[in-house]
Amino acid sequence: MPDNLKSPIIFFGFGRSGTTIISNIVFRHPKLAWVSNYQDKLPQYRSINVLRNIQDNSLWRIKKPNNAHLVSFFFKFLFLPSESYSFWNWVTKREFGRSFFWEMTETENRNAIREVCSNIVKYQKRERFSFKITGPSRLEYLHSIFPDAKFVWIKRSPLPNIRSLLNIDFFQDRKHELWWKGDVYSSKELKEIKNWNGQAELIAAIQYYKVHEVFQLERQKLNIEKNIYVLQYEDFIKNSDREMKNLLEFLNLDYHDNVKSYLRDREIYNANRKQEFYLSSELDDLVLKIATEGIG
Is the pTM of this model over 0.85? Predict the structure, then answer.
């Protein structure tokens, strides 16, 4: 086993659950290599990862400004962490981004996938591999490739999580049908979903339920509790410093100055604020019931 693939770190959670902000803070640790936006555009070229060393080295560290108004043409070309589904589709030779990968393991391409990931670490001149995905955990599949991985599951309360997902730009053209698909929906559920006629709030709610349900089923099946860390987004918002220390301890990483400064420079605020309702006065109770109990 290549040394740089020992104990890789994998972040996951439902879309808009807080995975990006939390993983990006951890990714500032100098030991970690990660899958990037450049790797997503050029999945077959592992040497593209040397670009990180131009931007981030012992002499300087170029970061994207917090204020969106300050992001110039130059900053659009920064080497940044990315979910990189084009890369994962390419390296797994499967439709990775939209699949639950329910009861699937990797055998045929396992060594090839590990070699690619090992080279990402090598070209970035780091020590450990890490990445972030959203939607289904794909826990059993990823565990078959990275058996000693540290898995970090980010969980956010259903209603604010679903509201955030429905409001984000990238989800507008996919919110009226099931985006994450697989043999995890019963015939009864599929029939009920069809009767909803593309009602986005209900479709988002059942996907929230299924993503969390399948994660728990995979978690029970694999019995790898010592390698799974569950972080509640709301706890992180309340005390980000404490929660980050606990997370890094689980990951066997020190609380490095890079992580501290990145956390300090980020505006951590409660995005769960409720006024009269989250979605609508008519929908909140129904959406919450589906998101937590499924279609009974």
Answer: yes
